[in-house]
Design brief:
Helices cover 37% and strands 26% of the residues. It has helices at 14-24, 37-42, 78-83, 85-90, 92-99, 104-109, 112-118, 125-132, 149-152, 227-233, 240-253, 264-285; strands at 7-9, 28-31, 50-53, 63-66, 69-73, 135-140, 143-148, 153-155, 158-159, 166-173, 180-186, 196-205, 208-217, 224-225. β13 and β14 form a beta hairpin. Bound molecules: flavin-adenine dinucleotide.
């Protein structure tokens, strides 16, 4: 339960953080809220020799709106997301998902940047970011670049981040007015990671689904977009047959790990149920 020895660095700018990471190489890790990294260090599953604490970097904080896009700084905490009226109004599924992460203590410290950069299949924000069509802004020794959330996740704890790069912010297009949304998460108890979870954003017209995106959490080594499942409900009124087709389409791409949250078949089964429930709840909210 005691982490290995490490040196602590507290840069004040993004440029300084990137320079420290580049200079210190593979032995250095960014530290955000510490609620994934520090537990790993206590278990000695991570043994960084240097921690680069991003908390003193003011430029990494805050929520800004520019027309139909919202940009969120990587060091914005889940608590700050929940306190934002703009997020609650324009991206209500982000508010709903943040509320389902861990507990208030973790949400006071845990950041959205740490959640999406971590690469743990159990993190809730990555599948949501893919569902919302978010873009991540990265900064490293070779400058700034952008990566779509849908292209960021390459394997468990393996992302598009290059050595020395940090995630500085993410930009999310605001979904259409009147859209329906839901994040359905099955967990063993309050504060737990998902056994299975599904994010749905859709629009409806005349009682029929016109657009739909479905994301899946903890049902594969990376977050997934369930494209065939979403296609199965377009043009339908979400009748029983199309809901069943969507659930089957989603289950077909799931390959969860068998772990303390249940065997593979159980997790796929409840994954399908999460998709069905999220679709129904999203449709009920669409105007
Ligand atoms: C009891 C408990 C329950 C939890 N339940 C859930 C849950 O239900 N759902 C959920 O999603 N999460 C859950 N978490 C994890 C929590 O949300 C973490 O806060 C989150 O995963 C990581 O965010 P952080 O700010 O704490 O990052 P840290 O732990 O500081 O960092 C995580 C990783 O990301 C890297 N990193 C951090 N910031 C950046 C950056 N800006 N650029 C590049 N790399 C970066 C770090 O180097 C590290 O590898 C839980 C944690 C605990 C302790």
């Amino acid at each position: 339960m005691i982490p290995g020895a490490f040196s602590y660095h507290r840069p004040a700018t993004v440029a300084d953080a990137v320079k420290l990471l580049a200079d210190l190489g593979d032995d250095a890790r960014p530290l955000a809220g510490g609620h994934s990294l520090v537990p790993m260090m206590k278990l000695r599953l991570a043994t960084p020799a240097h921690l680069i604490d991003l908390r003193g970097v003011a430029d990494l904080k805050g929520i800004k709106r520019d027309g139909n896009k919202i940009t969120i700084g990587a060091m914005t905490t889940q608590h700050e997301l929940l306190a934002s009226e703009d997020i609650a109004k324009s991206l209500p599924i982000l508010h709903e998902t943040a509320l389902l992460i861990a507990d208030p203590q973790v949400r006071y410290r845990g950041t959205i940047g740490g959640n999406v950069a971590n690469g743990d299949p159990g993190n809730d924000m990555p599948a949501l970011m893919m569902t919302l069509g978010a873009t991540y802004q990265l900064r490293g020794p070779n400058g700034a670049r952008e990566v779509a959330a849908g292209e960021f996740y390459q394997g468990a704890y393996f992302t598009a981040l290059e050595p020395g790069e940090i995630l500085t912010s993410m930009t999310i297009p605001v979904p259409a007015a009147g859209h329906g949304y839901a994040y359905e998460k099955l967990k063993r108890k309050v504060g737990d990671y998902a056994t299975a979870a599904a994010a749905v954003v859709l629009t409806m017209s005349g009682g029929k689904v016109t657009t739909c995106t479905i994301g899946l959490t903890n049902l594969h080594e990376t977050p997934l977009l369930a494209a065939d499942a979403a296609k199965a409900v377009i043009g339908t009124s979400l009748d029983a047959a199309s809901l069943q087709k969507a659930a089957q389409g989603a289950v077909a791409i799931m390959s969860p790990a068998a772990d303390a949250r249940g065997p593979v078949e159980y997790r796929k089964h409840v994954g399908g149920i999460m998709v069905t429930r999220a679709l129904q709840r999203a449709a009920g909210r669409a105007k």
